[in-house]
Automatic annotation (TrEMBL):
Boundaries of every Nucleoside diphosphate kinase-like domain copy: 1-137
NCBIfam families documented for this protein: PRK00668.1
Gene Ontology BP terms: CTP biosynthetic process; GTP biosynthetic process; UTP biosynthetic process
Sequence similarity: Belongs to the NDK family.
SUPFAM superfamilies on file: Nucleoside diphosphate kinase, NDK
Keyword ATP-binding annotated: yes
Organism placement in taxonomy: Eukaryota, Viridiplantae, Streptophyta, Embryophyta, Tracheophyta
Catalyzed reaction equations: a 2'-deoxyribonucleoside 5'-diphosphate + ATP = a 2'-deoxyribonucleoside 5'-triphosphate + ADP; a ribonucleoside 5'-diphosphate + ATP = a ribonucleoside 5'-triphosphate + ADP
Name of one Pfam family that matches: NDK
Protein name as catalogued: Nucleoside diphosphate kinase
CDD domains per the UniProt record, alphabetical: NDPk_I
């Protein structure tokens, strides 16, 4: 089954949105396979966002990500990468639909509270970067109630 990397950014942690965000992925039927609260160093944040290093907002983005603890997670399920992006909503909260996490809880693109991998390949890279120790192998006893 597919896995994705989801990170609640420092503003999501500071604003007390951790439980609400986790709840949305849990209630959907996705499985939590790894999770940690961690404050990352500058070089690590630069590595995570290396594809955006030429963007004018890169420096500010890195400052934001290292400004406090984040909650790093791995979620698993059928099509979890694409569906996770839909649950999160558009990058700019001004364009995120109501009902999405960013649409419901954020206003500015530079304070959009959550990250989600944009493709299966980037998810694989991000999970390896954030969880070099590996993820849990547990299986949900609700599986046959979620999948036919
Ligand atoms: P996403 O987080 O939706 O995958 P992205 O990978 O294009 O979006 O950009 C990563 C983060 O960078 C994004 O969540 C917020 C910030 N960002 C993107 N575009 C921006 C912009 N035009 N101005 C300021 N910050 C931006
Ligand atoms: Mg992205």
């Amino acid at each position: 089954m597919e896995q994705t990397f989801i990170m609640i950014k420092p503003d999501g942690v500071q604003r007390g949105l951790v439980g609400e965000i986790i709840s949305r992925f849990e209630k959907k039927g996705f499985y939590l396979k790894a999770m940690k609260l961690i404050t990352v160093e500058r070089a690590f944040a630069e590595k995570h966002y290396e594809d955006l290093s030429s963007k004018p907002f890169f420096a500010g983005l890195v400052e934001y990500i290292i400004s406090g603890p984040v909650v790093a997670m791995v979620w698993e399920g059928k099509n979890v990468v694409l569906t996770g992006r839909k649950i999160i909503g558009a990058t700019n909260p001004a364009e995120s639909a109501p009902g999405t996490i960013r649409g419901d809880y954020a206003i500015m693109v530079g304070r959009n509270i959550i990250h989600g991998s944009d493709a299966v390949e980037s998810a694989r890279k991000e999970i390896a970067l954030w969880f070099p120790e590996g993820v849990s192998e547990w299986q949900s006893s609700a599986h046959s109630w979620i999948y036919e």
